[in-house]
From TrEMBL:
Name of the featured protein: ABC transporter ATP-binding protein
InterPro entries: AAA+_ATPase, ABC1_TM_dom, ABC1_TM_sf, ABC_transporter-like_ATP-bd, ABC_transporter-like_CS, P-loop_NTPase, Type_1_exporter
Domain ABC transmembrane type-1 per the UniProt entry, residue ranges: 17-300
Compartments it resides in: Cell membrane
Source species: Marinitoga aeolica
Keywords associated with the record: ATP-binding, Membrane, Nucleotide-binding, Transmembrane, Transmembrane helix
Length: 578
């Protein structure tokens, strides 16, 4: 993350430089306005000098006009550059998130990521733009104002009036750390709140079915209360710090009138000089108050920056060699040797002692009880999670030496949960290859969903997903299969993705696939043994291990686990028919 800021400064320092030059110029011009006004006051005594007054007013107007132009320029460069940082960083973080392995998505909650993406990035932007302006302004304005006070009025009066300054420094230091801590806590409460909101919305069906509205409301209220409390703590702290600084800053004005008044009476300074001095004090109060603001914004920016770093610091746990296999032909010969695997957040082995060989063109099936490890294996083949060296080989090469892009480009995977994007159905099917949009009906036919689509209001142009027509679970599953087919990979994995259709349809789709995608390798995971009985080889999983393997008749002949499962399903089917 630090490198992101460094890299950005390296490329865009000149934008800041132009902005800062104009900012400093404006500050410098501003110094002359009180001086001119002070001079006018003194000149008022001499009536015949009205011409001089006219020229002074004219020069004030010129300065004011230049200030207006200059302000536009520095705003454009400094604020605009901070926005550019926000835009580039958002793109970088998003791409970093997309590059992560699956354990990242298992670990991070959506609402939390969203908050970091929006709120935290915004805080960092504030620290990179407005706070830079304020900081430079504060330092430069106060320095030149003090110099002007010494030079144009009186050093002793300047010193006496600025006695409260160090107190402001102490207040700032004290509150700075506190604000950072409170702000970090505030961001955490926002993350929790967005998580809860996002989850309640995503799981609204469950909430409704179980009449959990009150429970969810209570949970929301609890989180909302925590967010409110965190905000209030910040408001109290910031609310105390700001008036304290303001109070000590205005003390300077009181001291200026007290000591300056005496000096006018003693004729050490003129009345005009006192007016000038008071204007300078006024100009100093603002930067002094800005110190409080800058501290607040920088501390918030730092806290948010640490939160963004937590995302950027997480590295994909899957080893990736350089991507140089693009031109290599993918045959899809899989060999697995003594594979064992634990999910990164778990102590228990999800797979153990797995040995298998899948030859190109074969159809294999994984069957077994729920939670027995069937879905885990395809996830490892697709490099979603890291595996030990020498345990999985694709076309004779260790999977750890192959880039995930090469593997995923060549394998069509249909996961258990079918997710469709908010776009027309044909675009969902041709998602990976928009140029194949015209062929969408062909793939839909193989996936047995063509007829269903023709019945939709706008057929293939019907908008589906969150903002469109709601498809049934089975329809969604079949559209997902069509989408995988449009990828035209030589290796297809169907991970129990037909659970929402009846056995006959599942069988028909699998047979369709076998007939249409001849020479393609297929792994089919299913709970319905009947649907996969034609597979070349069936692996029976139990508790993370392969307990039986063979084709349908071989497995039946064993009269073991597979036989038991098959008989049970036959009886269930018969009972349903009766
Ligand atoms: N992301 C994960 N993190 C931790 N453990 C997981 C994760 N996904 C699955 N598991 C665990 O790994 C084991 C195997 O899960 P897997 O999803 O492979 O089973 P499955 O045979 O496909 O089950 P099902 O038929 O219900 O889909 C289970 O004990 C499960 O709880």
């Amino acid at each position: 993350m630090l490198t992101i800021i460094k890299e950005f400064f390296k490329k865009n320092w000149w934008r800041y430089l132009i902005g800062i030059i104009f900012l400093l110029m404006i500050d410098y011009f501003q110094i002359f306005i009180p001086k001119k006004i002070g001079n006018i006051m003194d000149d008022l005594k001499l009536v015949e000098n009205f011409d001089v007054i006219k020229t002074s007013i004219f020069s004030i107007l010129i300065i004011a006009f230049s200030i207006m132009i200059g302000r536009f320029i520095w705003r454009f460069f400094i604020f605009g550059t901070a926005r550019l940082f926000e835009f580039k960083t958002a793109n970088k973080i998003f791409s970093h998130i997309l590059d992560q392995s699956y354990d990242f998505y298992d670990k991070w909650r959506t609402g939390d990521l969203m908050t970091r993406f929006t709120e935290d990035l915004n805080s960092v932007r504030m620290a990179m733009g407005p706070s830079i302006v304020m900081m430079i302004d504060t330092i430069f304005m106060s320095t030149i104002t003090v110099v002007a006070m010494v030079k144009f009025v009186n050093p002793k009066l300047t010193f006496l009036s600025l006695i409260p300054l160090p107190v402001i420094g102490i207040i700032t230091l004290f509150f700075g750390k506190l604000i950072r801590r409170l702000f970090k806590n505030l961001q955490k409460t926002i993350s929790d709140l967005s998580d809860h909101t996002e989850e309640s919305y995503a799981g609204i069906h469950v909430v409704k079915v179980f009449s959990l509205e009150k429970t969810m409301q209570k949970r929301f209220n609890d989180r909302s209360q925590k967010y409110y409390d965190a905000q209030m703590k910040l408001i109290k702290t910031w609310g105390l710090m700001f008036p304290l600084i303001q109070f000590f800053a205005s003390m300077s004005g009181v001291l200026a009138i007290y000591f300056g008044g005496k000096m006018v009476i003693n004729e050490e300074i003129t009345f005009g000089q006192l007016v000038m001095f008071y204007s300078y004090i006024g100009m100093l109060v603002w930067p002094m108050m800005a110190v409080g603001w800058v501290v607040n914004v920088i501390q918030r920016g730092k806290a948010s920056y640490q939160r963004l770093m937590e995302i950027m610091d997480s590295q994909s746990s899957v080893p990736e060699p350089e991507l140089k296999n693009e031109n290599k032909e993918f045959k899809g010969h899989i060999k697995i040797k003594n594979l064992k695997f634990k999910y990164p957040n778990s102590e228990k082995y999800a797979l153990q002692d797995i040995n298998m060989e899948i030859k190109p063109g074969e159809m294999v099936a994984f069957v077994g009880k729920i939670g027995s490890g069937k879905s885990t294996l395809p996830k490892l083949l697709l490099k979603f999670y890291p595996v030990e060296n020498n345990s999985i080989f694709i076309d004779g090469k260790d999977i750890n030496k192959l880039h995930s892009k090469f593997i995923r480009d060549n394998i069509s995977y249909v996961p258990q949960e079918s997710f469709l994007f908010s776009m027309p159905i044909e675009d969902n099917i041709s998602f990976a290859h928009p140029e194949r949009v015209k062929e969408a009906p062909e793939f839909a036919k193989i996936a047995n969903v063509h007829e269903d689509i023709l019945e939709l209001p706008e057929k293939y142009k019907t908008l589906v997903g969150e903002r469109g027509v709601t498809l049934s679970g089975g329809q969604k599953q079949r559209v997902s299969i069509a989408r995988a087919l449009a990828k035209d990979a030589s290796f297809i994995i169907l991970d129990d993705c037909l659970s929402a259709v009846d056995t006959e349809t599942e069988e028909a789709i699998i047979n369709n696939l076998r007939n249409n995608v001849i020479n393609k390798t297929m792994i089919v995971i299913s709970h319905r043994l009947k649907a996969v009985r034609n597979a070349d080889k069936i692996y029976v999983f139990d508790n993370g291990k392969i307990v039986e393997q063979g084709n349908h008749s071989e497995l039946l002949a064993l009269e073991g686990v597979y036989y038991g499962m098959y008989m049970k399903q036959l009886i269930e089917e018969k009972l349903e028919e009766e």
